[in-house]
């Protein structure tokens, strides 16, 4: 088991973000027509079609690592693995392992070690805090435990991404949830989004959205450039690129 503990002030990591490299990041989510990623009970979002699942698997297969929050893992209990023979062959041809690394992001580290995720044939890494790592130390569920903290004992996600680049990870797919996506958007750490608009309305003021958190005022809201639109039966696949601040000046 490898343990890495790095404590860096948040303000320093934000300054270094402008001069240090990180992996290319793509958010991939299915949402209802009214912009929800789950119902008010935060049940697993299984309303996407087979076409949406195939699209998600394609994005997973194109990545070196998959990033998702603890809430997403608790809802599903598993992660999506690459199973299509053609996608597996493509990864082999590129010299990659059959499955990307699956990285769980959690401040608390409170996960059930009995869920099926820990039985799946994937490399599992944990991105957490010092406190969140305590339970998992000297256990075998996670191949690596990465500890990157701010001065307020929160996860320093920007520095963690820079470290992943040093490990040879160049492309990351982010599969939710809304809190993780929001925190990364606030730090300008998202490059692209793939959103599948599904033909149903979930409603509910407390139902989660693709981007939770405190939100953005219009003047500071992240701006998107539409790259691609695909329609498959009743679903619409939207591909966006995040505009950088320097592009908007």
What is the gist of this entry?
The chain has 249 residues and is of the alpha/beta class. Helix content is 23%, strand content 26%.
Could you explain how this protein is built, in words?
The protein is 23% helix and 26% strand. The protein has seven helices and ten strands. It has 249 residues and is α/β, with parallel strands linked by helices. It has one domain (2-247): Dihydrofolate Reductase, subunit A. The protein has helices spanning 10-16, 50-61, 70-76, 85-93, 130-133, 157-166, 178-186, and strands at residues 2-7, 24-32, 65-69, 101-105, 124-128, 144-149, 171-174, 192-198, 224-232, 235-242. The radius of gyration is 18 Å and the shape is globular.
> How many domains is the backbone divided into?
1
Strand content: 25-35%
Spans of at least 5 consecutive residues with low confidence: 5-19
Q: What is the arithmetic mean of pLDDT?
A: 91
Rounded radius of gyration (Å): 18 Å
Helix content: 10-25%
CATH superfamily: Dihydrofolate Reductase, subunit A
Principal-axes geometry comes out as: globular
Strands ordered across the widest β-sheet: 1-6-5-4-3-7-2-8-10-9
What letter string, H or E per element, gives the SSE order?
EHEHEHHEEHEHEHEEE
The SS-based structural class is alpha/beta
CATH architecture: 3-Layer(aba) Sandwich
> Tell me about the biggest sheet?
10 strands, mixed
CATH class: Alpha Beta
Secondary structure: number of strands:
10
């Amino acid at each position: 088991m490898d343990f890495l503990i790095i404590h860096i002030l948040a303000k320093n990591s934000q300054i270094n973000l402008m001069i240090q490299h990180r992996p290319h990041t793509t958010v991939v989510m299915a949402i209802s027509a009214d912009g929800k990623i789950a119902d008010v009970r935060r049940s697993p979002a299984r309303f996407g079609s087979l076409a949406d699942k195939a699209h998600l698997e394609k994005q997973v297969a194109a990545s070196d690592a998959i990033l998702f929050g603890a809430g997403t893992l608790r809802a599903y209990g598993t992660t999506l693995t690459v199973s299509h023979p053609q996608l597996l062959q493509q990864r082999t041809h590129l010299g990659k392992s059959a499955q990307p690394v699956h990285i769980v992001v959690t401040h608390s580290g409170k996960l059930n070690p009995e869920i099926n995720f820990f039985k799946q044939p994937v490399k599992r890494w944990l991105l957490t805090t010092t406190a969140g790592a305590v339970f998992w130390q000297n256990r075998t569920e996670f191949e690596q435990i990465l500890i990157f903290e701010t001065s307020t004992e929160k996860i320093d996600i920007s520095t963690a991404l820079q470290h992943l680049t040093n490990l040879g990870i160049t492309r990351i797919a982010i599969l939710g949830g809304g809190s993780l996506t929001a925190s990364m958007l606030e730090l300008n750490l998202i490059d692209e989004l793939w959103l599948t608009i599904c033909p149903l309305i979930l409603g509910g003021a407390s139902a989660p959205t693709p981007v939770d958190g405190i939100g953005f005022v219009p003047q500071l809201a992240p701006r998107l450039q539409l790259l691609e639109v695909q329609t498959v039966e009743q679903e619409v696949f939207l591909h966006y690129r995040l505009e950088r601040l320097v592009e908007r000046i």
